[in-house]
């Protein structure tokens, strides 16, 4: 026993950066903080308790945190349902109310009363009611070596039953999610509000200051925030939009600190991080780093080039494609930084070292050898098989679906699968009409045609001809193998090319119209692509993914058994998590040191009237010149704008509150530094930083710049003494 313990301890201390857990690494389940993290958090400076963060018997911090639209995080900051999130999270809602004549994106918007707040169709926020560990209920009696299909059937059946029983007779919803690839399961009981109204947004010159140039970068000077308000029915429960609805009376809202920040201050980020993959094997990282990312980057390079050119020539196109461009550029830039980080950390080599140690550990015991010895060879084999379809899969998702017309075709294809004359068909038709209206509101014929030519050419140049769909080959053959001529024909005659044609097509929808659609050249290409994908790519993709999922489950079980003293945190999966760290500066390269904060002075220094991303409004310049910062200035008399800390964050954490040791709001998380974007796969405490807009800059913009000080009056501001605020 002593010998085995010594071997285990030696392994733990020899694993290096891949498994050297730091206080600032990890996205922790809030209901487990008391057992796993509270003592460490208090050592780092936390003044509140784990129960103040998560409690189902009384109000706590978790009652102020929402999933915003299912893709970002937001937080309640007043007793009247006022909600704060990022500008880029509210961007699509702001865009939906914008036009050339009333450009809210450029000019900003502020409701000066509740009556002026703007409803947002389809926008919702979700609160967590409670989280429960249901692992035993799900896995009871299932051996680790059970036949996989039977295991999954049993797991799905139990999940369905647990979810149903948890919310029967209530308006709540329940979702059970796997953790550690199915070694654990947790149920999330939630409450969703669907009346969410736009209250305010700064102009893009503040909310998007720095634009794509500064995206993923520091020093940063963006006031990346927007404000909404959550409404309930008169009874306080969720309700669809109605003029009779009232501002939500939340269980809890966040107090706001004006005390400022210092290096080393304890911080927490509370939100809904989207996805991390910290426990990938070397085989997965090698595929991602050497093939998937380089090709995704190359495709988006081309797409961004086309969009940029057209947006520069026409303001109407700029408004239509602003959100699409930002979304495309966001992942593009992240993947570039991610690859650089993985290369710098030599992640593949570190993963291989861990795998060697795992193999030695497994082979040292007959029982472990029987269970774990085949895992890594099986990983190697399945990734070898998957490599055959990886490149065509990347080009199908990024190039083919990078063409907007193909996404519209997908919507129509779904409509044709529903029986004519049924209730389902009527509902689907109405949804398709609504989708078409929104689609063409933000669509430009000429731009999408250019994308078709550029991205299809990339597909032809980079994918093996055996994966070319028949309709594309036939279409090219009919047009002298000239992609431009094929595009001219499609965009002139296709039903999918204009709103007018789509309206005629959807009016009095019939079997005859379905047949006409099936003869449409663009639709034929769509179907041919998807059929080829379903036949040549999807089966291998699904089979390999199922096998990888099973292997990952055993891999994690083995790692946790090999390192019993290590605190493992689960990968992010869009569930509520808390990360904690400290306010801290960093050095991106040799000889360069970035301070932990920026000020309004940096906005003025970056100003460039000839570049849209760096325009500064005259009003902001006047306020700066007069030093009219009010109560929001720091001790030196400067206005803080952004700051960095060591909290472990990812996509989905956009809009998350960053809190101080007392649980007070000090900022709004909106980005990570470019040098730390590999943190989804490997966290580097030296380099990884989350970037937040300082809450003092947010309030300054609301109060001094926008003149909407009545909103600040709703909030609880803490200047010196901390306290938990309850309704």
Secondary-structure blueprint of this entry?
Elements: H1 2-14, H2 33-36, H3 38-43, H4 50-53, E1 65-68, E2 72-76, E3 82-85, H5 91-96, H6 104-107, E4 109-110, E5 118-119, E6 125-133, H7 135-139, H8 148-167, E7 173-179, E8 184-193, E9 195-201, H9 204-207, H10 211-214, E10 226-232, E11 246-247, E12 256-257, E13 266-271, H11 282-313, H12 315-345, H13 347-363, H14 366-372, H15 375-398, H16 404-416, H17 423-441, H18 445-462, H19 470-478, H20 483-493, H21 499-506, H22 511-518, H23 521-562, E14 577-582, E15 597-599, H24 600-606, H25 618-626, E16 640-645, E17 657-659, E18 665-672, E19 690-694, H26 695-705, H27 709-714, E20 717-718
Helix pairs in contact: 11-12, 11-13, 11-15, 11-18, 13-14, 15-23, 16-17, 16-23, 17-21, 18-20, 19-23
Question: Major beta sheet, specifics?
Answer: 11 strands, antiparallel
- The low-pLDDT segments are 1-17, 721-727
Overall mean confidence score, pLDDT: 94
Structural class: alpha+beta
What characteristic shape results from the CA principal axes? Answer: globular
Determine the fraction of residues in helical runs and give it as a percent range: 40-55%
The number of strands is: 20
Assembly state of the chains shown: single chain
Distance between the termini: 55 Å
- The tally of helices reads 27
Beta fraction: 5-15%
Radius of gyration: 27 Å
